[in-house]
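Task: complex structure prediction.
Instruction: return structure tokens for all chains below.
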Amino acid sequence: MSPRLQFAGISKLFPAVRALDDVSFSVGAGEIHGLLGENGAGKSTLLRILSGVYRPTAGSVLIDGQPVTLNNPVAARAAGVAMIHQELQQVPRLSVAQNMFLGHPLTRGGIFVARGEQERRAAEALAALDPSIDPAAPLGSLKVAQRQIVEIARALLDRARIVAMDEPTSSLTPSEFERLAEVIVGLARDGVAVVYVSHKLDEVFGICKRATIMRDGGVVDSVDLAQVSEKSVVAMMVGRELAQEQHRSHATGDVRLSVRGLASATKVHDVSLNLNRGEVLGIAGLVGSGRTELLRLLAGTDRASSGTIEIDGKAVRFSGPRDAIAAGIGLVPEERKREGIVPLRSITSNMALASMGVFAPRGVIDHRRLKRVAAEKMKRVNLRPFLLDRPIRLFSGGNQQKAIIGRWLAAGTRILLFDEPTRGIDVGAKAEIYHLIEELAAEGHSVVVVSSELPEVIRLADRVLVMRDGTVAAELDRASLSEQAIAAHAIPQTQMQVGKTGPQARQ
Amino acid sequence: MTDISENTATRPKADFLHRFSMRDAGTLIGLIVILAVFGALVPGFFAERNLINILQQSSINACLALGMTLVIISGGIDLSVGPTAALSAVISASMLVAGVPFPLAIVSSFAVGLACGLLNGVLVAHVGLQPFIVTLGTLSTYRALALIYTGGNPVLGLPAGFRSIFNGSLFGLPLAVVIVAVVALVAWIILKKTPFGEYLLAVGGNEEAAYIAGVPIARTKIAAYMISGLLAALAAQILIGRLGAAEPILGNLWELDAIAAAAIGGASLMGGKGSVVGTILGAVILGAMRNGLTLMNVQSFYQLLATGLIILAAMLIDRVTRGRG
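Output:
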């Protein structure tokens, strides 16, 4: 029998770039197939070809053995392909049902939208997945995990034979992932071929039997995941072995930042912490536990409702980020595109944004000095390619992150706050960012790292605070640090039980 | 390659060429094409007098468009420039007629322009209203104030001394042209060489990121609207100096020409992008086209059509040359 989905010798040329080079692999009906590779490896281009956004320069896509022409997204959908994007393509103000029928609404007489019928059918499709979702509710009122499920329900409505998922879990909590995993396994049981793209190897190993690893536009190998280790998969993705790094502490005894009873109007209650010179403090906890909000209070972007902050023993008060920056604090935010970079501006301009005053002592920018400092700082963070005048949007996520770190180095920041420092960053660049954070600590910077990836927290932190419900639930030093210990403190008792049912259902 | 700072520091010429962006080069080519077409069609189009005429006729729009460019770069829009000009014109004109010294009247007109811009800026930056709606509201408000203040009548009989200030010439160029050239130079320096310029580009390019990086968002936006108001007042002084009278309906639809010049010059209404050189070229393109069509005795209906097509053509070329995204 021919496989449900087959890529046969797909190549895609863009002007001056060969994005895909002779990509061939196949996915059987009922198979969940992982697609792995670093950013720029060609995964997204391949998915775009599958969903009809791009046309291949050479090669063809076969569904059930038949070559199909996917000239546009409508044709792809008609051929039974459903795409679930990383950044959900939905309209928050419309209802769940309206979103599920977006672009091809059910009508009465071809004129009026049959809302009732749409909602009835949406409810049918949702019943198997998550009956708690109300088809008439505005989509914006749902959690991200539920919105993912709505997308999957939409694929069911379209009677999709192939579902491609691009990083579906990038912002889900572990228990939400369990739920989604059940849904995906259910899809496969019904004979759907699932192509599953994720940076999180443990997830891929958890739910996929086979995976295809891509690098530089080509297929490295299609492997049976039971036969290979995570380490060898990473080596195939990166093209070399990544050394396993050991944690090194550079913490001193001098308290640099001291926070007492800090609270915001909503998400943070009574947080106290100390941060020493040269220390890397990890903050773990579930999404929504108040980690990001705590960082925003410390960075002055949100106002604290009560509590005190002292830096080097002096009380400070922030009425905006400018005050925090002046006190030596800088935030490297989670959503780089939205909160970090000014996309059209150069690396140099992005770097200088927080310290313009320094470069313009008499009102006019000293461009020579600016360029010298930019060259120095970007060399320090190992920007690649080393093109300081190039708009930052043309750089990879990892290099954008390096430029933002360089921004705070240029501003003389002594306390760096990282929110999910390696989200959306390649395995290779990830290691570089870890190194950089360690070196900054060694130079005497104080660092706070908020992360959902427990291995990352354990790799970096000298000490970890676990947050739950807006406050510090536990403090773990290196000796007592483990993924289990963090999870035990991070997850409220009620959720623990939900989490336990997950793995069984997956088998 | 590895040491960029040294390369550029030792080669100022390359640096200058680098600054003159591809987009500005495109606008310049557009201007050259339009000049060539009219030069071929209209005898005497390239006469020195006519070229100076074009510059003079473009100067008021260029003045407004420079302020507009800064506002657009900040991610906003200023629809109220025409009425701001009218209000500052009638107030200073009535002071002049009442015998107030010229400098005081001119400074008062600037103060009115700054105040109009301040109100726009505060409503946008501190109250958080949308720039389009705010300045649509003040467009009517400022116009109404000018009409109420004058009872709808023009302020006539401006002193000859005042008129001679703005009708003089320097280095063989009308003073209005020289003034706007100086304003353009200042605007260029602001955008390229000052923190405020970087802040404008950052606020318009990504306000949230700029905020986290410590950029003073509100101050930056308000300053942009105040500069726009000030330049509207300056444009009004140039105009009433030329006409010898100030009408409360002066400056009708000025905002559209100013936006057009900025857009032709490469400013993006999404914010974060725009060029002083481009805007000046855009204003001259519009001025040259009107001048040429008038000399060809083309009906004003067709002049309007030509203006519309030029704007659309500029945007299309922009789109095609830049590609998707």
